[in-house]
Amino acid sequence: xxxxxxxxxSNNGVxxxxxxxxxxxxxxxxxxxxxxxxxxxxxxxxxxxVEDGSVEPYAVEVxxxxxxxxxxxxxLSFKMPALAVKDVSVNVLWQGLSERxxxxxxxxxxxxxxxxxxxxLSRGVIxxxxxxGAGYGAHVxxxxxxxxxxxxxxxxxxxLRCAIVSxxxxxxxxxxxxxxGAQSRGGVVDVTVNEPVAISRLQPSRGPTSGGIVTVFGSxxxxxxxxxxxxxxxxxxxxxxxxxxxxxxLPSRFSGNVSxxxSNNGVxxSNSGVRFEVADLHIxxxxxxxxxxxxxxxxxxxxxxxxxxxxxxxxxxxxxxIGATKLEAGGYECDVPEGDxxxxxxxxxxxxxxxxxxxxxxxxxxxxxxxxGEGILSGIWPVRGRxxxxxxxxxxxxxxxxxxxxxxxxxxxxSGAGARYVSSSLxxxxxxxxxxxxxxxxxxxxxxxxxxxxxxxxFVYEAAATVVSARPSRGITGxxxxxxxxxxxxxxxxxxxxxxxxxxGSVQALYMSSTMVSCILPAQSTGIVTVGxSNNGVxxxxxxxxxxxxxxxxGVLLKPSRGPIAGGSAVTVVGAVVSSGSGPVxxxxxxxxxxxxxxxxxxxxxxSPRVVGGGSVFVSVSGDSGESELVSGLEFVYYVEPVVAxxxxxxxxxxxGTFVTVYGSGFSAEGLQCxxxxxxxxxPDARLVTTSAVSCLLPAVSTVGSxxxxxxxxxxxxxxxxxxxxxxxxxxxxSAVRPSRGLSGRDxxxxxxxxxxxxxxxxxxxxxxxxGSVLALYMSSTMVSCSVPVRGSGVxxxxxSNNGVxSSKGSLFVYGGTGSVWxxxxxxGPSRGGTM
Length: 836
Description:
9-stranded mixed sheet; mainly beta
């Protein structure tokens, strides 16, 4: 036989030297087998190549199991059966040879794939992806995308990292395995391969250090939550417009030339070589900052960083662009075009590229133009306010006196508390209400209205900004950088445009339209505050729109963390607290949206949605119909619903204590509970025997009757609904055994057992002692007949069981020696005989 044997030498055929050599006996058939390992579920195609073509196999045995083989003349192949995890022997038996060729095959646990990150790739680009699942290690260390294998790095038994590249686009299934083939049996996870992203140009390609919105033109952009741009070393979320256009909000940064690339998955970025110039360029002041709607006059722009402008410069008033002249002092001068009454945004451009953020320029119906420094009045702030009046306006100038002071807005005069002296160069005036929008002249009188200044400084009446809603309406306490979009009416593009959260949380707003602004939330303590918008930095209209600052959730988990694929599980988000009445929450299980509710004490409960197949998914909880994400990355496992097929025994005493076995499918130890009627028992009274059998210790009940037995595998959140019955009844009771004595070692003896509550069941039995149980013949509810089991001399208790498991308190039965007579009952009878 094959193997290693020792070889030693003897001179006399008896005595052998202590030293010896090894000699290997090999098979005359030289062959090699591949692969040498595979998953426990079987199905691995194994090939054994034979160098000697003169032999032919007739059988292959795998761990004692004969496998069907296929023979080509030089190679035999077969499929591995399902086996336990261990090393097994593979033996090949050859025709005409007494020996066999043996190989060792390693059986490992079936690996699975649960998720792949990222799941969107670019054609022709090497992407490092993280594969999550189970069963990774020495036998499973490669990724298979379609029919292509990629060598991986095992991070741990649940995490495999692979560098993947595909030269074709489409959707491909990801499996795990080894160099011999894909081995995963835990479901299919797909990745999508798209054409790589490319950037052709940016609009604008130059911008200020304060940041701004950039439109990116290119190709192959995808609508994805991971769509992003790399702005130098910073990454920003991209906003999808079309497959060839995206937009992004650039952060503030130092001036310089930075690279600009895009990615659909946040990992693979384009290599287009496009650069963006960050210029420390902004308009400090516009002189004058308001003028006639007829235009035809000039304004000067005091500009910081103007030295970076090398080409032709332009001013843009709203939608109208006009050439700009560079001044010796470094600023620019522009002719003002005609415009409609109101505020226009003024930008400085180089060619078609916008270089600065917009600043406000006010067109008014007056004929002249405000020039600061002329006359007594030099300026006012704010320069605009609401129609309802009540705006406190600071008027700057010279020569003010504390007496006879009045302020005039157009043709309306205010005095007394409405015109307050602060200093000889500052007066505070409260605006009166106005019936119409527009600009009016602000003048001051020192002599009770007999004479007013005539400097023509303009104050603009306009509709007050009103707030309708805030999206999202919730944020995290103490966290900076959170952005909220405020929806409303009459928002103006002004320097002072701002959002106010509560009484003192005022922040600058980004103008988006007359009905929409965006604000970065100030850090606030926990609570609900009102949201307001101010066009002038002073007036804020009262609104009923609230914003809730919530403490950041920590230690959040799902209970239960598993449920059936049919959905409907009430899943509590433990550790999550939301103010009651603060609106609905949305729960997303994988790709499916579930219903979320907030209880009176602020707890969050999600109802799991129906899914197609079992497996692990990630759960996120959001407020405002999904706009404000509160927590994400919580794992929930879907399983195929368990089924209860039958219960044994199906009856037992009302005192409880009966161990019943519940047969069915889909059982697991995690969260195992049994429900008997309305009573629920868990570990240790409910134990897993196998995936198709559960043992339950039944509780006591007060009344007889039938109840259903159901099973839960998620802590009682969901039970089966199969209705398998169990009958509670009064237990059998024994009062006498007739005869109460018998012969030891004798077969065929019969006794009649008298008692109460005997039931005509298949399991009706008599028990003699501890382990002498025999089937009983039902005669009535008070009498059964039983064969006496053979045993030695002694005294045993005889009891009766209606279910074959539980037995009553018994009556004594004596096993006596052969030939002995203890007593005859009755001791007399008639001469005709027949007495028993």
